[in-house]
Amino acid sequence: MADLVLTASVLKETKIQIENTLIKAGVNTVLLIDEAGNIVVACGHKINNMDTTSLAALAAANFGAASQIAKLIGEDDFALLFHKGKKGSIHVARIGTDLILVTIFGDNVSLGLIRLRVAQLARTIGKAFGQK
Amino acid sequence: MALINLSKREIHCKIVYYGPGRCGKTTNLLYIYNAMNNKARGKMLTIETKGERTLFFDLLPLNLGKINGFDIRIQLYTVPGQTIYKATRKLVLKGVDGLVFVADYLKVRHEKNIESLQDLHRNLLEHNLTLEEIPIILQFNKCDLVPTPIPTLTEEELETDLNRELKTKIFEAAATKGIGVFETLKEISKRTVHYVATKHLLT
């Protein structure tokens, strides 16, 4: 697992992509994190009222645990996780090899739209970070 | 896996406290959390379990100030020490930049200390890492029990068991009383930041 060095231009471009693809579609909060639980980019109007450090660490751990479960049932990995709440839901998806996209949204946005937009975003972010 | 944000001028490093069950890893973090002021520390995250044992991990984010204009942000993690949680320990080690191995002075923990260090070796190898490249500090915890009637190991025994090959710095500690806790943190932070900075900024 290589260290991640982030330049201003990559971060700016990624933030714009997330804003245009997910935040404008009605998503509350988006965190782009690495597998160690570090926050790479945080977007959305609720991030200042949220413990994003804990959220990132738990999401990365949750994703890691799910990957291990996948191996136990003969899968290589689970590409996404989805937790549904009464008002808010969380969608967690792998981006390339080292990054994870955490999307938090309310019941005004459909899961199908999130899946579609995250898949689009995965390609652009993966390319910006030079991931496979 | 350190994260270096050139835009915000921040360096994020991950330090993991490793060691056998009940050796005092969470106690180290709790002492640091209670002793540091609110500005320098984040919220301590502990995943609730029914007993005192750590099920997944504890996390304590700290701001250690500036070095060469970069804000140094450290995340301290603990692992569950009990043997059965091997898979969880491996997960927490993902992206580790520095390690504190907490050993237990209690004589009954003699084998567990050695087993845990061997387990650390194996888990690091699965992440393509070795103890030779990652900064590591040894902490011999519960030194306050040595003068009591409770059977304990000697410092020499612990050193022979754990530091024969590592040859790293050792700190005596009594984490419940705070003895040696900040000394350990200071040394591992210094080594970890140096390790990350040498790789990316100074070379």
SSE blueprint and pairings:
The complex is a heterodimer of chains A (132) and B (203).
Chain A: E1 4-6, H1 8-21, E2 29-34, E3 39-44, H2 52-72, E4 80-84, E5 88-95, E6 99-106, H3 111-128
Antiparallel strand pairs in A: 2-3, 2-6, 4-5, 5-6
Helix pairs in contact in A: 1-3
Chain B: E1 3-5, E2 10-18, H1 25-35, E3 45-46, E4 58-67, E5 70-78, H2 86-92, E6 98-104, H3 110-126, E7 136-141, H4 155-162, E8 170-173, H5 181-200
Parallel strand pairs in B: 2-5, 2-6, 6-7, 7-8
Antiparallel strand pairs in B: 1-2, 3-4, 4-5
Characterise the protein shown here:
The complex is a heterodimer of chains A (132) and B (203). Chain A is an alpha+beta fold and 132 residues long. Chain A has a single domain (8-128), classed as 2-Layer Sandwich (Beta-Lactamase), CATH 3.30.450. Chain A is built from three helices and six strands. In chain A, α1 (8-21) runs antiparallel to α3. In chain B, strands 1, 2, 3, 4, 5, 6, 7 and 8 form an eight-stranded mixed β-sheet that branches. The model of chain B has no long low-confidence stretch (mean pLDDT 92). In chain B, β6, α3 and β7 (136-141) form a beta-alpha-beta unit. Chain B has helices at residues 25-35, 86-92, 110-126, 155-162, 181-200; strands spanning 3-5, 10-18, 45-46, 58-67, 70-78, 98-104, 136-141, 170-173. Chain B has five helices and eight strands; from the N terminus they run ββαβββαβαβαβα. Chain B has a single domain, classed as 3-Layer(aba) Sandwich (Rossmann fold). Chains A and B meet through β1, α1 and α2 of A and β1, α2 and α5 of B.
